[in-house]
Every structure is written in C-alpha cells, then in structure tokens.
Design brief:
The complex is a heterodimer. Chain A is built from 11 helices and 8 strands. Chain A is an alpha/beta fold. In chain A, strands 3-4-2-5-1-6-7-8 form an 8-stranded mixed sheet, sandwiched between helices. By secondary structure, chain B is α+β, with helices and mostly antiparallel strands. The chains are: A alpha/beta, B alpha+beta.
Chain lengths: ~260, ~725
Amino acid sequence: MKIIAIVSGKGGVGKTTVSANLCAGLRRLGKSVLAVDLDPQNALRLHFGVSPRHVGGLARAVLSGDDWRSSVVQGNTGDYVLPYGSINEDDRLDFEQDLRENPTLLRDQLALLGLAQDCVVVLDTPPGASVYLTQALAAANAAVIVALPDAASYATLPKIMSLIKQYCSRRKKFLGYLLVINQVDRVKQLADDVTDMMSAKFGKKSIVLIHQDQAIPEALAYSKDLQEYDPLSRGAHDVKLCVQAVERLLSPDTVGAIAA
Amino acid sequence: MSLFSFSELPNKLERLGGKLANAPFWESNFARAVAAVIAVLLLVIVIAVPLDLLQQTAIAILAFVVSSKLRKLSWGRGGILIMIGISLLMTMRYLYWRLTSTLDFETTVDMVFGYLLLFAELYGITCLVLGYIQTAWPLERQPVMIDRPVSEWPTVDVFIPTYNEDLSVVRLSVLAALTLDWPADKLRVYLLDDGRRDAFRDFAQNCGAIYLTRDNNRHAKAGNLNEALKRTTGDFVAIFDCDHIPTRSFLQLSMGSFLRDPKLAMVQTPHFFFSPDPFERNLETHGKVPNEGQLFYGLVQDGNDIWNASFFCGSCAVLRRAPLEEIGGVAVETVTEDAHTALKMSRRGYNMAYLAVPQAAGLATESLSSHVGQRIRWARGMAQIFRIDNPLLGPGLTLGQRLCYVNAMLHFFYGLPRLIFLSAPVAYLVFGAHVFTATTSMVLAYALPAIVLASMTNSKIQGNHRHSFWNEVYETVLAWYISMPVLMALLNPKWGKFNVTAKGGKIDQEYYDWKMAVPYVLLLAVNAICAVFGITELLRGSDEPFTALINCVWVVYNTVILSASAYVANEARQIRHTPRIKAAFPATVSRANGRTVMCETANFSSTGLGLKLPKDNGVKWDIGERVHVSIFRGDKESTFPGTVQTGGQFVGIQFDDSLTLKQTKELAKMTFGRADMWATEWDKHTDDKPMSSIKNVVAHGFVNLYGLVRSGIRGAFVKRRA
C-alpha cells in the first residue's frame, strides 16, 4: 500500500479535481485505488458518483468506533471512496480533537484496512495548514502539491514545503513530492511568468503542468473519465503525464524518482 | 579461411601503405629524389605509351571494371583516391594522345573548330583535376565545445546589413539574432540600414537591436559592413544577410573553434534555403534532386577546409575582428567582397574553417532572372579577383590554398566552354569540319574512358550532394549569361555591370520568360539544324557513317540538357504567401470555448501554422474561429493568437497581424530558431545513381521540350490576337 497526500497552500486550486483525475489515471494503469477524503467539505465522493445523500464516512466511523472498512463505498465510476462523512459542527470539533491527540490515527487506521501491496491510497486534504494536513503528511509515502500559477499560490509554497520537510522528509518511507501547477494559461502574462518562476525553482523533474482546459470540468460534470471524454485534449494529456510522474515517484527503483 | 579475403584488402593495403610511408629511407633526400624520378618516369610511360585501338580498348575496359568494383565497395576515402587515380590516368592518356595525335588539321575550318573544342576540353580537364584535389578528402569538421567559464567568453557583434529589403523580411532575422544563445552582456545585434529608413530605426529601437546607418552607400554591402566595423568593438563579428534567420545555437556551435585556435579568422556555415530556388520550383525538383548550392556547401567547402582554404560567403559566418581590421575590413575591390576578404586573411597566415551544420536559413532567389543576376555577380567578382589578386601569385598562401582558390574562380569560367560543347556538333554536321584528325574508333577508345571514369568518380565523390547530369543542367542555364561578364572582367576588372534586373515580388501567374530563354532556344535551334543535317547525311549514305552517328548522339544529349534547362524559364506561379516550412512540433490549440486540442504542426511560416490532427478526430472547426496556438520545444511553451482558416484533419491557422514584438521573437525562437531545425533536412538527399539520374534528366528534357513547344505556340497565338 502506497499513500499519496494531495495538498495545497490555499483553496480553490482544483485539488479535489486533481485527486479524482489521479485516481482514475492510476486505475487505468492497473492499480487498485482508494480515494480518502480528509476535507470536512466532504465533496470528493461527488466526483465518484456517490450519492449526495450518502452520509457515512471516516469522521463518523472514528467517533462511533466503527471499522473504517464499513464506510468505504463504491461510486458509480467503480472506484472505492472513503468519504469524510456528514457530521455536525460539535462532532467535527470532537473528531479534530481526536486527531490532535493521536497524530498517527490516520496512518494506523489505513494500515488496519489491510489493503493489497499494489494498492494506492489518495488522500484529499483541506487547503493550508490544518490537523488534517498534519495527519495526511504523517501517513504519506508521497505528496502532490497542487498550486495555481498565481501570486497567492506562489506565496504559500514555502509554508507547504516547510510542513513537508517537518512531517515527511525524515521518514524513510517518504519517497518525495511533486508540484502540480494547475490551470496553466500561457496567454495570461502573469500566469506565464509565475509558471516559469515555479518551474525554475522546482526543476523539471519534480514539476508537472496541467493546462487550463474546459474539458476537465466538463468531464467531471458529466461523471465521465477525462481520457474518454476528450482524449485529444491537452488536459487529458497533462493528467496522463501527471499520473506517470506520480507512478515514477511511487516506484523509486525506476529512473526519475525524486528524493525529498 | 581463405588466403586472400577481399574485405580484408583495404586493411592490408593500409598497413602496407603505413609501413611504406614510415620506412626509414624516406629520411634521405637522395632516396626521395630517386623515388620521385622513378615515379615520374613510370607516370610518363603510362600516360604517353602509344597503344593501338585494341590495346587502348583493353586498358579502358580494365580501368572501367576496376573502378566499377571500387564504386560499389565502401573503402572510404582510400577507395575514392584509387578511383581518382584511375580517372586521372585515363584523362591524362587522352590528353597526351589528343595533343600529339589529333591536331594535324587540314583546313582552316578544321583548325578553328578543332582548337575551339580543344580549348573547351583543356578547361574541362583543368577543372576536373583541380576538383579532384579540392574534394578528395573533405574535412568533416565537428563543432568544438566551449570549455571556458562564461566570464571568459568573447563579445560578439551581429551585423545584419540591409539596403532595400522589406521590413517584414528583416524583422524575423533581427529578432532571431536577438535570441541567439550567448550571454546577453556579450552580444549586440546591429541592424545596418543603407536605406536610411525610419521604420527600420523604430523597429530596431523597440526590439533591442542597435540601428546604424551612414550618409552614403559607397561599396554597397562591403562598405556598409566596414562602416559598422568602425563604430563597434566586439571581439567577433557574426554576419547575416537580412533574409537569413539564424538558429539560437549558431554561436554555441561556431565559437568553440575560435577559442581553441587563436589564428582562426573565420568560421563559415552553410547557406540553407527553405524556399525552392527557380530551378527547384520551375523544374519541380525541390526535395528530390540536390540543388545547385548543395554541392558547394555539402562538398566543396568541406573539401576546401582540409586545405585551410574554405572561404567566406558573405552570410552565416563569424569573423574575428582583429584580422579583419588588419586587412582593412571587408574587401571592396571586387563585387565578391566575401571570397576576397577570406583570401586576404589567408595571405596573412590566418586560418579558415567551414562547419557543415546549417545554423541559419533564408529565402532562395525568387525568379530565374534574379537568380541569374546573382550568379553573374559571383562570376564577375571571381574573375575580378583572378585579375587583381590572383591566388596563384602573391605571398602567403600554401599550394593547396592556391589551387582551391583558383578552382573556385575557374569554376565560373565555364560559360564559354559549355557553349562550345553545346554547339560543337555543328562543326562536323553542318560545316563538315574534322575536329580530330583521327579515326572515330580511336577517338572513342581514348575519350570515352576518360569521360565515363570522370563521371563515375565524381558520382562517387559527390554522392548525395549532387546527382549526375543535373550539373549539366545548372551550368547550361547560366552558361550564356555568365560568359560575357566573366570575359569582360578578365579583360578589365573595372568593366561594366551586367546585372540582370531582378523582377522581384511574387509571380502571380505562370508564364514563360521568353526573354531569359532566348539563349537556350537559340542553342536548341542550332542542335535541331544539326539533327536535320545529320539525319540527311545518314539517310543519303555517308562515307563516314560512324562519325555522323556519334555527332547525332551528341545532338540528342545536347537537346535533352537544353530542353531541361530551357524549362527553367517557365516561371511557375508562386502563391502569394510566405513560404511554408515543413516541421512537426508538438502543439496545442486552445479554442474559444475553453476546450483544447493536442496536435502536431505540419508546417509553419512567419504568418501562420498548419496543424495535423489524428484521423477521425471528430473535432468541428468554425472558419474564422479565434484560437490560441501553443508550440512546444522540450518543456518550453509559447502561445500565439490566431484565426482558423481551414478545418479538418489539417487545420490552417493564421496568426494575428498584431503579434507583439515579444511574440514574434518567441515565434522565431520556437520555429526558425530551433537548433536542429535545418540539420535534419539539409543535404539529406539520396546518393547519386547515375543511371536513374540520367533517366530523370531525360524525362525532364522530353516533358519540358513538349511544354516549351506548347508555350511557344500559345505565346505566338496570344501575341497574334493581341
């Protein structure tokens, strides 16, 4: 089992979309995938065609002491999802208190799932520093940082990097990170410049660009796999490259892996 | 294991040769003198020994068989040198026989025609021998890596001279020069405008180039460059014609040699043209048959290089400032300032280099008349240098350099000899002159092996750089036009300008340039008359049927070459847009609705792109749709706004007229400026196959003769109506 944390310094960067596309891509490569939602918004399940009325999830399971396995659902896309779960505000605070008290709760619980060797767990996290992010990073074998080519993303990158350093770099099982610049638009001067700046800072090997492409939100809206919805699109191509980069990251034997 | 393995032979020969060359007795001057005397005596015997018809024929067949075998083996340079040796031997045998046994002319007519032909033959043989020396062992120089820290790299001034060319042409060259891969503080791009145009000044100021001009146009391009030399200080000067667009890697590839060799004064790279020249366009040979320049840049300059005699060609070259200033700047005495500049620097003991990697590309001449005009200038200039600064005389040159330079000049004197060959059958068929006082079978036994072996050897040497017989076509087209200017310049280097005015602009409608075609039509008429006389004589029962027949074959050959040549004057229509260059780069179209399409470019030009999509892609395009096209180079991406012109599997995009300077610069960088842009296409023709090449020329000849007659009839008809 390999765990990837999808993280970002700020909100609205398309992290959940990247997570969903990553799951689909990894599944295409023949991996079994479990998408885990650590975001209280509990939106990830919607990308997998799980009914909005579905209320179960890991937060509920923790609070009620249930086995997480009972909360895993299969969406109509065929992927397995562990939603966050619909909970009220008091429960959320309790859950977060539990997470604070037990920093390895997520890692332990995921281990208890008894997933197969080649299974990949994709963790979607809320933006910025949070107890969820701490848990995700403590569990992760790899991190995917999602950013937009804008000033705010650029400004929050150092913070995220320092968190990764703090929680991951010293662990032997941590294989490295990847920066995904999402919604790249070379027509816009600022986006173009920030993309170049980030590329220069992170280097070719640890960076992937996903271009601005209407096919990506459209495919999600119609619950279609992007590769089938518009195989000729730049978006589909970029996501494919992104999936390949993640796979290289997870198999450190292959050339191109990046040590953190 | 056999005692004698044929494939081992070259190695054995090499070992034997090595032993012989390193033998200690060569140290003794006496031994060397004895060896030389023996060699010369043997050579004289082989060349001069009189043989009867049967014996000479036997020698010829032996030479032919050995050379044919060698031609198919890949013995590398050694094999070629042996072929050259055999060819020279047969040529020298012919020459000796020709001079000693065929010149007892009986009548004045015989003598006049006989000596005219002999003159043409002597010219041909001289060029053959010099050509062998020049191209026997091309250097195939490789780029030298720059192994010093960037802080020690020299400063480079890029000169782009212009006089009356359009800004649209010059723009791209200047912008591409600005993107040259070289430290920004060590690179200056100068636009040298002899036209004193405000638009050029504004453009230069906006894009970061430096605008220079002067108050006169003395010595044209050479003067323009010299004026700029006075006002600049860079260690090196890179010169590009204003329609040559450099690739980004030009300096990275060419500068290394300078740092290694402090006496190196110049590095020249090939001139590559992405549009077809008039030959290629009108004869429809673009991409199929190596063009006229290919032999020069593919083989001749590379051959010169081993003799340290490659010369400056006016563009796509870097020169070291100090030696250039030492000789007083670019030479102004002749109209080929470039070659003369190199000659002058060579005389001062500086080294020259040629690097056969195309690092710039430009537009070929647009019409036959401008092409001819340009060649007249070259021919005239070379003749001028031959007169005022003859490379055989004067100080400072090695024998190899002298011979290479002389050949470069003699090459342009082919006009008159070529005209003589093209009209020679007239001597016997019309005037009954005997240009050889020998039997026809003896002429064949001596001349044929010389001609055939020279063709075979040159075909082997020239390989993919030129296809057999096309040389005849190229020279025939120009022969008439360059012979007079060359003659005049030889008589007095200051005489006359013979430039045919360039028509310029695009050719909107196919037409036949009768004015340009007059010489070929005249020569065709001469050969037609010869044919009539020849056939009549054969039918009447000639007392020399064999001689008549040989002359008739000659007429047929001339007719083929002439009609292939005459068709060059049929100016094919040029479509009124900038030439499109085939190239497959990764690309993406971002459409108005936010969707994207990944594809590949099929071609590009300075104003648009052709894109190739996968088959059955199902993408619907609206003509006039506004899009952005991204072009990729590695992980570099540049985006340009444009409009869809055509849809389907191939999509045509036209860039907005309002591309900013920055965008145009990016475009140059992503397309014309790619380091490997031209290397993959340049000089990649298939190897010469003489038999299929002659078939090709013959086919062109007949098709074109038909076309010519048709145009003639149509032309006459239109004129009568008008």
